[in-house]
Write a structure and sequence with these properties.
Largest sheet: 4 strands, mixed
Strand order of the largest sheet: 1-2-3-4
Number of helices: 5
Number of strands: 4
Structural class: alpha+beta
Shape: globular
Helix content: 25-40%
Radius of gyration: 16 Å
Length: about 150
């Protein structure tokens, strides 16, 4: 799974951005104590993991219920065009329906035309008025330690 995350980072032009480790993935996905904070589904071909969908719970204050945030959906280039990405999305949608989650959301790079085409085909709608905000590194630390 981590190898596919590294492939994704390279595809998204951030090859050195992955700092996760097998241990950090295990701690979140299969913790020794407590509940997972993230979940993963995989697509396999001939016993090889060739696609991943990693997600976590969100909460909608407007709807008063959980939703799903799809953090990463990735299918290795040699295995694209076979419906694996759509199958992973369908599996996640089924989880949402089964558990009563009212929405599944994610971000996509605006230049990732192949992904955008898949998302349009399954009925996903862009949230054009919303922009993603991120607080990391020094700025996160400064705010988190401000008295």
């Amino acid at each position: 799974m981590l190898d596919l995350v590294r492939e994704l980072a390279a595809y998204e032009r951030e090859p050195d951005a992955v700092t996760g480790t097998p241990e950090s993935f295990t701690d979140c996905l299969w913790p020794a104590d407590g509940s997972p904070t993230a979940w993963a589904h995989v697509a396999e071909e001939d016993g090889e993991v060739v696609g991943i969908a990693i997600w976590f719970l969100t909460f909608s204050t407007w709807e008063g219920t959980n939703g799903m945030w799809l953090e990463d959906l990735y299918v290795s280039p040699d295995h694209r065009g076979k419906g694996l990405g759509r199958a992973l999305l369908a599996t996640l949608a089924a989880v949402c329906v089964e558990r009563g989650y009212r929405r599944m959301e994610w971000t996509v790079l605006d230049w990732n035309t192949p992904a955008l085409e898949v998302y349009r085909r399954v009925g996903a709608e862009p949230m054009r008025e919303w922009t993603t905000q991120r607080l990391t590194g020094d700025a996160l630390h400064r705010l988190g330690t401000a008295g």
